[in-house]
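Chapter review. Work through the record for Thiamine-phosphate synthase before attempting the end-of-chapter questions.
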Amino acid sequence: MKKFIEKLQFITHDIQQHSHIEQAQIACSAGAKWIQYRCLTKNDDELLIDINAIAEICDDWGATLIVTDHVHLNGKADIQGFHIEDFDADFVKLREQLGEAITIGGSATTLQGLIRLAKEGADYAGFGPFYTTTTKPNKAPLLGVEGYQNAMAELKKLDINLPVLAVGGITINDIDPLMNTGIFGIAVSAAINQAEDMRSAYLDFYDQIV
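Structure tokens for Thiamine-phosphate synthase:
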């Protein structure tokens, strides 16, 4: 089943300036069609308060709601999909567990990771880090533009048609060179939700990507 995958994916994060709900509201009011709720600090009751509120916002604005991990909450709120950050997750089993209607995305830091996600039936992949990021720090080498160019060329050779989104420390000035590598889109958190004017920042990204 082919899924809708948005080219600009906004990821909420634990920040002082705005709650997750506020971030979703501002992004959707700016035209966001994809909200990835990423919160790894709350218990299930707190998560569901956030998720249900964000689900209503997404429904009002016609946006897709993706939840980072927490697949055990499937069916307890109006969630359209899950983004799995575990590099070793079994996506075949996840598909069996969640069903065909749910969108499932995964994270990768290498070409081999992208190939595995494609073979196991992930609907899209977040590929990074492009640059240094404090939102989701890890020890993987920074890809830079060249890393995306090489990976996309190899996927094309293998005839793998997986929507790949660049992620990790991306700024507005990085969009054009990244999109020219052949990636499908970009996932952004800090460059939008920590901007002085979050709504304007989202619109700036959207205008260059879509």
